[in-house]
Every structure is written in C-alpha cells, then in structure tokens.
Amino acid sequence: MSVPDQREPTTSAPVPALEVRGLVKHYPGVKALDGVDLVVHQHEVLGLAGENGAGKSTLLKALVGLVTPDAGEIYVRGEAVKLRSVVDAADHGIGMVFQEQSLVPNLTAAENILLGGEGPAVRRGVYRWDVMRRLAQEQLDKIGSKIDPLARTDTLSFADRQMVEIAKVLRIEQRSQHPPVIILDEPTSVLESKEIDTLFAQIRRLREFASVVFVSHRLDEVLDVCDRVSVLRGGQSVGEVATAGAVPRELHRMMIGSTGSDDHYHENAAASVEAEQPRLSVRGLSGKSFRDIDLDVAAGEIVAIVGVHGSGREDVCRALFGIEPTSAGEIRMDGKKVSLPNTRAACAAGIGYVPAERKNEGMVGPMSVAENMTLTKQKARCAGPFVAPRKQAGLVDRWIERLSIRTPGRDTPIQRLSGGNQQKVVLARWLIGDDIRLLLLDHPTRGLDIGARSEVYRLMRELATSGVATVLLADSLEEAIGMADRILVMNDGRVVTEVACPNGDKPTPLDLVKEMV
Amino acid sequence: MTVTTGVAASRRIIRRGAAFRDAGPPVALVVIFAVFAALSPQFRSIDNVQNIVDAAAVLAVVTCGITFVLMMGSIDLSSAGVMGASALTVSLLVANNRNDNDFGLVGILAAIVLGCAFGCLSGLALVLLKVPSFMATLGVSAIGLGVATLLFAGVQPNISDTMLKSWAIERFLGLSYLTWIAAACILVGWLVQRYTRLGRYAFAIGGAEEVLTLSGVKVKPYKVAVFTLAGAFYGLAGVMVTSQLGAGLVQAGNGYDFSAITAAVVGGTLLTGGRGGVLHSAVGVVLVMVLTNGLVQVGVSPYWQGGVEGLIVVAAVAAAVIPQRRRNQVVK
Amino acid sequence: MSTPVAMQPVAEPATGKSGPRAAHRLTGFMPLIALVALVVALTIADPDFLTQRSLTAVARTAAPLIVLAAGATLIVLCGGIDLSIAALASLSTVLLALWLPDLGGLATPAVIAVAAAIGAVQGVAHVLLRIPSFIVTLGGMSILSAVALVVSGAGTVRVVDDTPVKWLELYVGGYVPMSAAMALLVVALIAAILKATPLQSWVSATGYAESAARLAGTPVDLVKIGAFCVSGACAGFAAVMLVSRQFSGGPTMADNLLLPAVAAIVVGGTAITGGHGSLWRSLAGAFVVTLLRVGLPIVGVPSAYEQILYGVIIVVAVALTLDWSKVSIIK
Amino acid sequence: ACSEAPAGENDPAGAGACKPADVKLVGQVRNESNPYEASWLAGGDAFAKTVGLTQQRLTYGGDSTKQQEQISQLLAGDTKCLVMNVLPNGDSDTAPIVKGADKAGAYLVTQWNKPADLKPADYKTWISHITYNGVESGKQIGDALAKSIGGSGGIIALQGVLDTAAAKDRFAGLQASLKENSGVQLLDQQTANFSRAEALTVTKTLLTKHGDKVKGIWAANDDMALGALEALQQAGKAGKVAVVGIDAVPDAVAAVQSGSMTATVSSDGTWQGGIGLAIGFCVATGKLQVKDIAADNRAFFAEQFLITKDNAASFAQPKTDPADFDCANVFKRVAGPLK
Ligand SMILES: Nc1ncnc2c1ncn2[C@@H]1O[C@H](COP(=O)(O)OP(=O)(O)OP(=O)(O)O)[C@@H](O)[C@H]1O
Ligand SMILES: Nc1ncnc2c1ncn2[C@@H]1O[C@H](COP(=O)(O)OP(=O)(O)OP(=O)(O)O)[C@@H](O)[C@H]1O
Ligand SMILES: O[C@@H]1[C@H](O)[C@H](O)CO[C@H]1O
Ligand SMILES: [Mg+2]
Ligand SMILES: [Mg+2]
Prior knowledge:
Chain A is an alpha/beta fold. Helices cover 32% and strands 24% of the residues of chain A.
C-alpha cells in the first residue's frame, strides 16, 4: 500500500503544515539522514516508523532546531525556514516530547510544564506562583492528570513524569497563533495502557486543531492512532502507508526492506524446565517497598513479574542485584545461600541486571561500545591481570555481529548510537563471559524496534535453553505472557498470586489485570 | 492500569524523606550548640551568642553568594581575590588616609559593582571560553589579588568614613549593623531563590542543565548573571571586612572561599547542584561559627583547633547524609 | 532475525573520518602546545630564560608538583577531588624528617606507606559515609595539618644526615634531575598500569557515570579507595622529594602546593567533572604551572601584574586544552 | 651516569671581582601587600638607587615552595655577581637557599629565619644573617604592657604563625616578662597567624570569654595588635584595654602616638631591605672581604627600638640614611652576636 514519493505538493491540496525535502545529516562515520522527504498535513496524525537507528530521532530533532541539517529544506506552512534552536521551532509552532525524559527533577511539575515559556506566570523575572499553578493545572487537566502541579518532579512516578512532559509540549498551543505541530518521539514506551489510552485521546483531540508526528516501535499503536505512516530506513524515506486497513506485518516489511515476521512471541520455543533444584530461590525477602517475597526460578526458566507502578517489582529486582537493601529474608543460588551487599557480590554470584533507565544507569555515554560491553566480565577480555586488546576486539566484534548492533565501529562512543542499539550493547555486557546464571531484565525491550525486539526475545530463549534463569519485568503484559513460563503478580509490595504460563495454555492479559489491581 | 494509591503512597515516602534530610543540619546545629553550652558557661552567655552572630556576618554574605553558584553545580573560588580588590577599592574611595576621596555610599556601591564585574568575568570565562568554574574562578581570584596589590601600593589605606566604620561598631537590638546587613542579604537571597527566574533557573541548571536547553531556555546569560550576583555579595563582603578592620587589606578575603563552601555544604547544599539554598547555607554558617567560637571557649589547644573543627565538620556532614543514603547513590 | 540493513555498518565517508581524527589528535596535544607557547613567550620576554641550566632547574622544581598532581589526577578522573594532598605531603615531610635518624633508608618507604594508608582512610570515609570527597578531604586537610603541627612541635624538623634521600638530588647524565626522572617514572608507571589493565575503563566509567558503572558490576568503591590510596602515596613521595631539597621537614612545607596541583590537572585538560583526562596531561599541566610560578617573576614581571597574568594565562590555557567533545556540560 | 651537580654549573665567583655596574641586586620577601614588607622592598630600591642600580623584586606569597622555586630558577641564571637579600619564609627554607647560593657562588644575606645550627661562617658566599632578638622584644612589650596596666591584671596573648621562630621567641619573651611581673596573669592565648582579620575574631571571642578581666592584649606583631584594637572598638572597650605589638608599621606607630596602643618595637623594615643588599654589594665589589668580617657580624641581632608614646614621633616617618649603607657602616646596628 506504499504510495510513490510526492516531491511536488499537489496544488489543489491545502498547504502542508510541515514539509521536509532532501534532508541530509552526517555524523562521524554515519549518515543519519540521507535525503529524507516528509510531509505532515494539517489536522493529521502522522506516524513515523523505522528500525532503531533509522534516523527518526535525528529527523525530528532537525524539525525542532536541535540538529542542523547538512543539506535539505524544511517548509513550515509552505514557507522555507531555518530552525536554529528550540525557541525558533516553538515560534513556528513546532514542539517535541523527547525520547529520553527531559524534565528538571528538582523543579515543580508546574515549572517544568511552563519552562522557557512562563508567560504571565513570571512577570519581570518575578514568579507568581498562583498563576503558575493555574496555568499548569490547565495543561494537566487537558490530559486528565491528577498530579499536584507544585509537587517536585522527582517525587513523581516515571509515568507521571511522562504525562508532565506531554502537558509541557501542549503549551505550544498557547505559543503560536498558527495550528501547532506536535512531535512525540516514543512517548508510550514508558506508559501503561491506561495512560496510553489517555494520551491517545489527547492526540485525537489535538488533531482537531493541530498536526501530530508520532513515533513508536509498537506498530499496532502506530496503526491505531495515526492516519498515515511514513517509513524511514537507513536515513531514507522508503514510503508511506495509509493506516486504514493496514497490518503491522506490512509496515514491518517496509521498515526492514524484506519480508519478516512481526511475530515477536516465541511461545513454542520454551525450554522444558527441569524441576530439581531452583537456580534462584528467595524466601521471605523484605525491603523498603516489598515484603515477604518468595520466588523460585529454575535454570532455563523465565519468570515474569507483573504489577502496576508502585507494586515494588523493580525494587525486588534491584534487591536481587544488591542495590536495594533488604531487611529480612534469604537468597539462594543453586541451593547455596548468598549475601548480596553490593553489585559486585551479585556479579560474582553469576547474576546480571539490565536496568530500565538506560541513559543514566545502563551505559557510560562517552565511553566506547567496546568498553561498555566489556566493563563487567574481565576474564573474557583479559590475559591474567592485563587487557588483551586483540582478544577484546575479537570478542566485541563477535557480539556486535551476533546482536546486529548498528555502530560505525567498536570504538564509537555508545552515546552516538540509537537507543535500541545502545540497549543491545548493555545486554551484551552480561552475555560475553558465558558465565551468567541469572539475568534480571527490567524492561529490556523498552525503545527497541521490532527487529531488535525479536532478537532480544530470541536471545532470551537461547539463554534459557542454555540454562540461564531469567526474571523479566516486561514492557507489556503481552510480552510477559509471550515470554514467561510463569508469571508472578505483585501488588503493594507483595506477591499476590502466581500464574502458570505454559506453552499452549497461556493466560490472557485480562486474567492478569484482575489480580493486579 | 495505574493504581493511584500506590503512586501516592510512594510519593509520600519520598516527601517524608525530603523533610527528614532537610532537618539534618539544623539538628546538628542544635546538638553542637547544646554540647558547648553544657561545657562552657561563657559560651552560653548572651554576650557570646551576640558575638557568634556578629562574627558570622561576613561569612554569611559570602556564603549567600556562593550558594547560588553551588546550586548550579558550579564552584566559586574567587571570593578571596574579589574581596581583596573590593576592600582596597572601597577604602580608597571613602574618606581615608591615602587620598582626599570621600565618596561615602557611592564608594561602597562602586566596590560592589567591582565585585559584580569580577563575578561577570568568571561567568564569561565559563560560558564563552568554556573553562570549568573551578579554574575560571581561581584565575579571577588571582586577578583580584593582583588588582588589590596594585591598589595597595605599599601603604595601608585606613578608613575614616564614619558611616562605614559605624557598621561594625554601632548596634541595633544588640546586634551590629553588619549583622543586620547580613540578615538582609539572606532575606534578599532567599527571595531571589524562591521568587525570581534567576534563582529558580540557577536551581534548575543544577538539576538538569541540558533540559533547560532542550526547553529553549538560553542558560548562558543566567550562568553569567548568577556569577555576577555572587560577585556582588563578595564585593559587599569585602566592604564589610573593611568596616570591621578599619582598613583595606589585600588579604581581606583570605580563607573565605573554602569556609563559605564548607558552610554551604554543612548546611545541606550539594556540590553537584540542584539542592539546598540560602536558608540551608545560613544554618551552615551559624554551625561553622558556633564551632569556631565554641572550641576557643572550651579552651581547645590552638594546635588542635583546626583539626578538631575539620573532624566535626566531616562528622556533621556524615550525620546529615545518613537519612538519604542509598546504595547506588552517586557521591562525588 | 537480523536484518540486512542493520547488519551492515554504515559505510564511512573518507572525509568524515580524517577530519575529526586529526582534530582529535590535535586536542590531545594541546597541553604540550600550551607549554611550548609559554616557553616561547617567556623567552621573548627574557632571552636569557631559555638556557639548558634554566630548563634543568624548571624540571627539578616541577618534580614534586608533578607527583602530587599525578596522584590527584586519578581521583579527579574518578569524579572526585583531593584537597588534602598538600597537607598530607607536609605531614609526610615531618614524619620523614623525624624517622630518618632511626630508620635511615627505610624511612622513605615507611613514609610513603603511611601516606598511602592515610589516603586510603579518607577514601574509605568518602565511600562508606557517602560524604563528598571535597568535604572529606577538606576536613582531612585540617586534621592532617593539626597532626603535623603537633608531631613536629610546631616547628621545622631538621635533617642532619640526608644521605638516604640524597639520591633524589643527583642528575642523570648531568642534565636530567633525578627527582624529575622519578616524577616521570611515577607518571609513566601509573599510566601504564591503567592502560594495560581494566582499571582504565573502571576509572573512566566511575568518573563519567558512577551509577551505571556500579550497575555494570564495576568495583566503584574499591576503585575510589584505590585512587585515594595512590594519591596518598604520591603525596608521600612528593614529600620525600621536598625533604631531599629542603634538608628538613615542616608542618606547612607543602601546603601551598594544593592549588597549583589542582591547576596542573585542569590546565592539562583533565575534566574536573571526571571521566576524561590522563596523567600525561597533568604532567604537561604541572610544567605550565611551574613555569608560571617561577618564570613570570624571574623574567621581571612585577608582583601585582604577575598575579593578574597568572590568572589570565591559566584560564586561557584551560580554554585551549580542554577537549569539549568529551565533556558535555561544563560546570 | 649520575652527577651531583647539573652540567654547566658555575664555579663560585672569585670574591670581589665584580664591577659595580655588573652587580645584580635581588630582594625577596613574601608579598608586596603588607606595609612591613613593602617598606623592606622600598628600602632595597633606595639602596640600589644610591649605587646606580635597580633591585629586582621577588615575592612568593608566603609560599615556601614557591620561594625555593624562584631561588633555584634565579640561581640557574647568571650568578657571577648576584646579590640576594632574602627573607626566608620559615626556618626550614633557609638551608636550601643557602646551599643553592653557595653552590652557585651568589652573595647572600638572609634575615629573620634560620635554624640555629646553620651558620654563615661555614659558607663562603652566605655573608651574613640578620635577625632580631624576639625573646627580648617579646619581653620588652610584655613589660610595657604590665607597666601600663599598673602591674596587675589579666592579659590575653595573640600568637603568630605557630611554626615560626619569631612567634615562638616572642612568646617566650612574654613568658619571661610574666615571670617578673607576677601581678599580671595570662588569661588565655590563641594564635591569630600574624593576621589582622583573624586577630579581630579571636580577640572578640576572648573578650566575651573573659569579659572585664582583660586589661591588656599582647600581640606578636602589629597587624594582630591593630586587629585587636578594632575588636576593642567594636566591643565598646576602646581605650580601656592596653595593646602592644611588634614591627612598628606606620599605623601602629600612629596608634602609639595617639595613645590607643601602648608600645611596639621597630626592626626598621626599610633599613632591612637596604642593608642586606648593601652588605652583599660591598663584598661583591671587593670593598669588603668576607674573611675580614668579624665572626660576630656573620650572624647577628640587629638593634631594635622600643617605641612608646615618648619616642613615637621620631619613628612616624620611615627614613633611610644613605650613610647607613656605606661599606664602613653596614655593621653599625649589630646589637650582639646570634647564639
Ligand atoms: N549525536 C550523534 N552523533 C553521532 N551519531 C549519531 C548521533 N545521533 C544519532 N546518531 C546516529 O544516527 C543514526 C540515526 O539515529 P536516530 O537516533 O535518529 O535513530 P532512531 O531512528 O531514532 O532510532 P531509535 O528507534 O533507536 O530511537 C544512528 O546510526 C545513530 O548512531
Ligand atoms: N506556594 C508557593 N509559593 C512559593 N514557592 C513555592 C510555592 N509552592 C512551591 N514553591 C516552590 O517550589 C519548590 C518545591 O516546593 P516544595 O515545598 O514541594 O519542595 P521542598 O521539599 O521544600 O524542596 P527543597 O527541599 O528543595 O526545599 C520550592 O522550593 C518552592 O521554591
Ligand atoms: O610580621 C612580621 C613578619 O611576618 C615576619 O615573620 C617576622 O615577624 C613579624 O613581625
Ligand atoms: Mg530515536
Ligand atoms: Mg524545603
């Protein structure tokens, strides 16, 4: 259903809200954008799809003046513009919610929402808190968020913060007299379904008077909320799809340039679980936000923990990795009691952890892909106490290839990679030693495209088959159901129930939701 | 799928933590005060309490200035030089024994403006030359001392301006005018911090500078403005020292750089930025002054005084951070 | 399920590659360029300055500063700061002077060991008590100064027989002061150990992103304690150099080397926020700072202008040497 | 391959071989930002002018290592006719300066600080060490203080930088004075590091601690005495407590003259700045032979003058008498040998 390139806007149609022609952007060693064309019509929701590293974020950043393109033109309502800064873009009515969260943690939600455009809330440099509160409340009301506008942002949950981001970008409405263009770069990757519903309602409302560009790796979402999807591949526009009647598989085919499967479950590949001694056995574990956790994970088993925000599942994971202190309980690995006072101890016990907040906790931005990958397992890259450069290079290259990590080279700083590729590097970190016994995965597929996602799923399977025990905090209930052999449901710091999840007899999401709330 | 109670509950926990962590320094202050009061009757005399508060005046003003810089996550070591330059400037502009100037208040303002200029210089070096503030302000401090030495020219300027001299001598409600000036500075500082864009943005820059840029805020002018504001406080502090000593000394700011940082940190302002504030710092200043005074009052040997003070400061900070200790906390 | 597009690393355009590389190499040499520029400027101001004897004297003078800065560089790379190095070096001079009569040649290793232990204690306090290194070492500075004052009886401790430390005052091949050669050795040794072992990546990871490093299983705490320990040992060794040069130990002898040492690190282009930098940069930085300290007055710059020039030059030098591509935010 | 001296080291100069015009005069003090040391450098300039030369001023900001660094850099230059008048930062700084100068053959006069067992007589070009009897001055002002408070009452003492000989000797002098004036009681002693600002705070604290018992303040130098005066004024006790100091800086002399201070002691900084260069110049140009200098003149206490209200007027203006620097007169102010 791809339509041919539309270089010339047809004269009869109304002027597009935004048009991009031949945009090019080079980074050292990477051509992030290679002549991209894009049209955003007025009153439409345009989806942008593409693999990790396809250039979506770069393109969008160019639209808000954060990236200066090397070549190409941007037209706003038919008029060629040069966007030099976020302010420039905002003045043209273009605003963006970023892929990585961008709120100031120690300011109030209200200040974040109005940041850089306080308007009447700040007069002559002096704050009027009552006005600020009111203006922010208006934005929050739009998206139905119940948070206190004067709460400090770092006291809010991750999802609430995402709502604050959206409320913030909706301020564009007030700023420009023209219909705004609002860009949402993966806003849903950290939201839960109810919040996503709220967001989509907002997007539909926005369409009445604005244009929206929406990016998500969840293709069903894209097809759900968008009118039209534009697909990027390797920095080039490869076509468009009208969403009416389209299916994810088709979109995926365009994204990767060949036929593939959107089947990201591997239900049938589950390893048979040996029932002798559990690999991980937790009894009565209690900490600040969880109590009396019992948990067994056998070698080769994948156990998912599901629960709403504040259920304490993240902290359980972190306790198992020696980050969160515990007040009671015992942890056994392969029957041997272990104490996990710090991450070193956890690593030594053969435990690995992939944190959800990749940017701050997962990677060391300025360091190379190779160094990020080999930070943990020294034996794999060293000869005696010394780093063996050849060995390290070979090892790293092997894993770059194995996980199809898209990087100019192993010496590229990891911060230059796209989000999905960064995640693959972080995951590889635990695998390279071939000695991992228990893997704790906190939202391991957050921000990954379907290709990468399938690969992570395949990897998890492979690891399970080879005997690694896995605890998974999944990105969605579907993911949990698809991957897990067993699912624990947590609520308010306790395990409320355990649901078996064998092949062929999977529970439905609804079964789980019932237990969660 | 979100259960709001869960969110609210966890938020409450964090809020309580925040209140608890703010309580650390004041509690430490009360404890230390109580210990000295128990050990020494002179310490708890009204006279001595007045004396402590008076002695805190200059440090309080310097700390007020540095707090804004620390809130941004930067550091400022320029106070020693700026105060020296300001001290000589003011002592040569008000009635003095070196020349016939008698500009009074205008001279004082000129010294404060000079402080602003030096602060501005630090800020510009930071944002234009991209020199880390540690080094930029160290350089500016050296420049300030050089300027002060030039102005000194071998002969000590003594001031005879009655108004400036009266600041250190005259009292209102038992406290010297200098102390009231310091109190006014704290009040102004607090208002700036809470109610002005400059103050809130300084706070925000310490929290997440890159986010401000993404939100279209030009942070550079604010950074320069914060350093300039800090410079104004140092300039005033130089004037205050001159009033106290009755003379313009090149060394007027000796040691204030590190003492002010110590006081701010003891009060709960983070060196990494984004937390604390003028009131926190004021508590820190009083704590440090109580310590210095108390150790003399209880008669700790002069040989050991510095050491004991260092030990107590470390202990106080350690005690204050206990409630907020987390395993994966970043402490630089 | 790898995709053909993703499999292939993007072809690298030739131009896009050589440009940044060359630029990168240039920023790596910036500290050296700044150093040469300074020598040239001083020589222009006073042609007599550029003599072999004069340069030999600079090298000898710079030695203790190089060693102090080298140790503290490790801590800065980890994202911290050590304000106690100078006070610790002062205390070490006192200890060395006190112990030389009894311990003779053993006094040197003994002092270095004690200094290393004191450094480690501060590291442990920093890590366990979660107090910023700035405060721990500021407190450490006052405590160590007080100890030095008391131990020395508030005075200079003369070294009557300085044979055990005299070797540091020799000249290798007639031109290179032994102390400078030793300083170079210290830098080379630490740099080599870092490079050859995982320590380099642990130190950088700790400096750039401590929590990510910890979650990757990096022994962040041990790395930091180790850095403090090495910094302490370096302070001890610098003290040995000072004693060999001063024939005595004194409770405030090295105190004024603190800010020059930090300046040397920053002027070398090491990021004060941690992660990026190297000991070699600090070596160049130490020479720049030494030249400014001794060169300006010797070529006849009057005292007041000397301070002004020092301030200006040091700021400009940092502006030149810091590689901004490695440090996203400059605080 | 190791040698004791760097290649190209100068041979010690043959004494007295220099033409007056070839002599290079260097004066080195801590800084130019206090009146005492400023007057020292001014004295050096004044002397240099009398012989048609200029003095190179070096300051090291009270930083021992910086002083050493400057000296070794200086000695790495042309040292044939180099004359140095140096104020070592502390006792420990003297030995390396002396040894360096001796090796390079530069003429050296040091003042104030030196360890007791380091003696100019053991060196060829270290011509002389000049200092003042700190025990004596400390006692003199102690006695003056005792007298002005009527022989009985409490006093407090402000010490100098604790690890300097000047601070220790002067305090020893105070203790000697206290022994003789049994009515005077030392209530408290603290260091204010020779600093005016520190003296202000310490004095204020001690005044609240001891209240009206404080009848006098003994300060180890004038800067601290002036700080104490300010503290008294702020405490409303100006004129009610006697203050003594040492150094005779202009402000202190004025204070003595006006009666707000009781006494100070002059070492005559201007003379100190000139005399060191003068002695070195005389030897360098051969007008004086080191071997001819009396042993007692190689390390001596110079005359110091107790200044009280009676004689303050004559010290009000610092003055240099060119005749003091005549090669025949350079040892005229020797008050006694240093033991
Ligand atoms: N600042 C940068 N420096 C160098 N290369 C960059 C930079 N930003 C992006 N790139 C590169 O440009 C390409 C496009 O990245 P971009 O972030 O636009 O991808 P994306 O489509 O948003 O991917 P994802 O879905 O993972 O977010 C990637 O190969 C990436 O490595
Ligand atoms: N009604 C108000 N009037 C003025 N300022 C307000 C008001 N409400 C909130 N603020 C500002 O918002 C910030 C957050 O307020 P809140 O009291 O929730 O935080 P806090 O816990 O006091 O923060 P901190 O510990 O940093 O002081 C405060 O620092 C304050 O400056
Ligand atoms: O003030 C001076 C100097 O500081 C010097 O140390 C000698 O003693 C004091 O009188
Ligand atoms: Mg992206
Ligand atoms: Mg508060």
